[in-house]
Design goal:
Layout lengths: L4 E5 L2 E5 L5 H8 L1 H9 L2 E5 L16 E6 L13
Parallel strand pairs: 1-4
Antiparallel strand pairs: 1-2, 3-4
Helix pairs in contact: 1-2
Length: about 80
């Protein structure tokens, strides 16, 4: 029997050590995505869409979704405005 826990980040299964937090799970999935989440450029939620803190603990079977935020600069402002 494995001493790890399986969690899912953006539908990818990961076997991680017990006690891994949200940040660690995202880092294991994609370090660049973890950096974006840490900077606020990505939204991190659970399977229900509820925001998760990066230092929040995970349990076996947790589902984490990370979505890169679309940010528009002033140069991309609506042309009809």
């Amino acid at each position: 029997m494995s001493s790890g826990m399986r969690v899912f980040v953006n539908s990818a299964p990961l076997d991680l050590p017990p006690g891994t937090d949200v940040r660690g799970a995202i880092r294991a999935h994609d370090p660049a995505l973890e950096a974006r989440a840490a900077s606020g450029a990505a939204l991190v939620t659970d399977a229900r869409g509820i925001p998760l803190p990066l230092d929040g603990p995970l349990a076996a079977g947790a589902i984490v979704r990370v979505v890169v935020r679309a940010r528009r600069g002033e140069q991309d402002a609506d042309a009809d405005a």
